[in-house]
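User: Please predict the structure of the protein below. I'd like the answer in structure-token form so I can feed it into my own downstream comparison script.

Assistant: Understood. Taking the following sequence of 148 residues as input:
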Amino acid sequence: MPRLRSLSHMGFPWLFDKNKLLLWHNFIKKFEPHLRDAEELDSFYYDLLLSAAKKWNKQNPKRIVCESYIMLLDYEGRLYPEENCFICEQRIEDDIALMQAFKPAHPTCIYSPALPTKKILDFFESKKTVFLEDHEVDYLFEVVMKGL
């Protein structure tokens, strides 16, 4: 216990992997503007980041970012799991595109690549990327990197 008194850093095995560290840094950077005006922070945010950091070396970091982000949206009540386009409010059939904060839209409404609607709605429900292809996870990661 005496050694924990002046502890300022807890290391993780992935800290020496440049690619993983860069992805972590980009993910963490998104929290500062998001939480800037908060006077008190729930332990949820710390627990979310700690859980992500523990899995970072074992899983694809982009998948962890996407799963963490959807849990954050759900916790904050900003998850929009509807089948209607956020822009035109018409029903989305086969293909879906996502805006910032994973808001669904028609690919033609936001001029974005399309993903299978069923897969994305399943992701919204399960909050797991296990059934998504790597290129779909890359797309979701790019959406997250636009900001929380």
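That's the full token string. The chain has one domain: 16-35+42-144.
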